[in-house]
Amino acid sequence: xxRYNRNLWATARTLADLGELTARWLEGxxxxxPGYCGPSDIEDPALVPLLARLNRAGFMTAGSxxxxxxxxxxxxxxxxxxxxxxxxxxEMATLLVxxxxxxxxxxxAHDPAVLPRWRYRYGRSVTVTTxxxxxxxxFGIHIPRRHINDAHIGWxxxxxxxxxxxxxxxxxxxxxxEWGRAGHxxxxxxxxxxxxxxxx
Length: 200
Prior knowledge:
This protein is 36% helix and 22% strand. It contains seven helices and eight strands, in the order H-H-H-E-E-E-E-H-E-E-E-H-H-E-H.
């Protein structure tokens, strides 16, 4: 990461600060993000405004994918579930879980009170991508403190306050249980973020 972007991320002190910087990265205003030293590569650019709104509303997104089904880059058959995960305050996590449950979505929410120190916890991970019917990707892994504080794969270049905010946040993953469905997850999240914006 170049010095300018490194210094920019180092200014973050709160989860809200990190969300704002993530929104600006998604929108292309910032060229790099901690743990991902390059521009955003969202699979569907039409989702960028919604993802930016979610970040500014208090859900700092850390990963997403669209729902789709068909041949992949290698000609094999791939299936994906629409998925989004990130870090949220207790209040935002509650709102997201309620919205997801009402929409029939799958939720994995990890309480910061049981944040692992070193090891990743895979017990609640959900398969969200398959290739020819075999597991490729899982979301909902409980990310440990070590990952968050790492300068290469996590947010270690950010301030101590920002990293503490991430360690104190709920890790929330929302998954559309139906393979290949494109819009259902995003419609539910748009409703949740609109409710949050109206309340603020």
